[in-house]
UniProtKB/TrEMBL annotation:
InterPro entries (UniProt xref): Calcineurin-like_PHP (IPR004843), CNP_phosphodiesterase-III (IPR050884), Metallo-depent_PP-like (IPR029052)
Start-end of Low complexity biased regions: 20-32
The organism's place on the tree of life at top rank: Bacteria
GO molecular-function term, one example from the UniProt record: metal ion binding
PANTHER family: CYCLIC NUCLEOTIDE PHOSPHODIESTERASE CBUA0032-RELATED, PHOSPHOHYDROLASE
Family: Belongs to the cyclic nucleotide phosphodiesterase class-III family.
Region (Disordered): 1-42
Keyword Hydrolase in record: yes
Keyword field contains DNA repair: no
Pfam families: Metallophos (PF00149)
Keyword terms, alphabetized: Hydrolase, Iron, Metal-binding
Protein name: Metallophosphoesterase
């Protein structure tokens, strides 16, 4: 899996060719179709099956395996309309604000419509946001995050988990993460804590929270024993049911130092090694990542990270998001990934590449291949 390459192109079918701009891409749906800017993105219609994987008719909630089209974005750090007040600048929030002010002149953020327009052109079945919608964990930012999630789609199709910036300092539930409770729930009607389990046909999406307040100078996360035990139970149950298990977490289990990493990463790796999962999606690192995590019986699962969703000029990695198509293949599962990235030369998102994984492969097998 290490060393997988990306290849230019798109995963579009003949009637759904993504030519770069979200609006131009959307107009290819059924000829002259264009997205309704007043409808949530996850409710935009798409008249074509894309990427060569086609859903079986009537299989969304039936017994036949289905294909799920899932968008993944992370680390929006939605710019606050107004900065923190003097009363709000205390402790770690003050340090974060000073760092933000220092970097602000040379780092630009994309206008939010750039991202929304591009997402609208693909009309995914579901959208996963893996944390850090806020920057300073201000009540106004949590309200802006709620408005953004509502714009993406209804809670039944949009899933969110918090990141370390969303827990920068302790914030009362009602003014903070409680604003997003509808999008942080599983199959229950109300938020019931982490991890949550959302079944979407034959795909089980499990959301974790690694967001905890930490000391100044640290950006680490922690799951805790209770979450890990519950995760083990959910992975075992959904594995027995033959579901494709997708784990959402903000902090990656690999690739970060102790200051920025997951404190109990070893315990998480033990759970995954024992019970397995098909894939893990994360944010936090602000860079693209594809790393192998050991599963049971010598298998590996991909840990996939995306950069910031709104990173413009001055950032090391410009804005990106991923479009995944998860479908059945040979008694297992296949993952096709389309990488969408911001191109400052044309001031819009375009396709940067695509790649394909056969999930659940053993170490030493060809787990990654370039999609045809």
């Amino acid at each position: 899996m290490v060393g997988a390459q990306q290849q230019g192109g798109t995963l579009a079918c003949p009637g759904h060719r993504h030519l770069g701009a979200g609006q131009r891409a959307a107009q290819q749906f059924g000829g002259r179709h264009a997205p309704d800017r007043h409808r949530p993105l996850a409710q935009q219609p798409c008249r074509h099956w894309c990427g060569g994987i086609r859903r079986r008719r009537g299989s969304r909630y039936g017994r036949a395996p289905m294909t799920l089209v899932l968008a993944h974005l992370s680390d929006l750090h939605l710019p606050p309309e107004a900065g923190p007040t003097l009363r709000q600048l205390f402790g770690k929030r003050l340090l974060s604000y000073l760092a933000w002010q220092r970097k602000r002149p040379r780092r630009k953020e994309l206008p939010l419509p750039h991202l929304l327009e591009d997402l609208a052109g693909f009309a995914p079945d579901a959208i996963a946001v893996t944390g850090d919608l806020t920057h300073f964990a201000l009540p106004d930012e949590f309200r802006a995050g709620r408005a953004f999630l509502a714009r993406l789609g209804p809670p039944g199709k949009v899933l969110a988990i918090p990141g370390n910036h969303d827990a920068l300092v302790p914030v009362p539930w009602a003014a903070g993460l409680g604003q997003w409770a509808e999008w942080m729930r599983g199959d229950t009607e109300a938020f019931a804590g982490f991890p949550f389990l959302r079944r979407m046909g034959d795909v089980a999406i499990i959301g974790l929270s690694s967001a905890v307040p930490t000391a100044p100078g640290l950006a680490s996360g922690r799951l805790g024993r209770e979450q890990l035990d519950r995760l083990a139970t959910l992975l075992a149950e959904t594995g027995r049911q033959g579901l494709c298990r997708v784990v959402l977490i903000h902090h990656p289990p690999l690739g970060e130092n102790r200051r920025r990493g997951l404190d109990d990463r070893a315990a998480l790796m033990q759970v995954l090694a024992r019970h397995g999962a098909e894939m893990l999606l994360h944010g936090h690192s602000h860079r693209p990542a594809l790393l192998p995590v050991a599963g049971p019986a010598g298998q590996v699962l991909p840990s996939i990270g995306v950069p910031q969703a709104l990173a413009g000029a001055g950032h090391r990695h410009l804005a990106r998001w991923h479009l995944y198509r998860i479908g059945p293949e040979g008694g297992g599962w296949a993952l096709e990934t389309l990488v969408r990235g911001y191109d400052p030369a044309v001031d819009r998102f375009r396709s940067l590449g695509r790649w394909r994984l056969r999930l659940g492969r053993a170490v030493g097998e060809a787990a990654v291949s370039i999609a045809a």
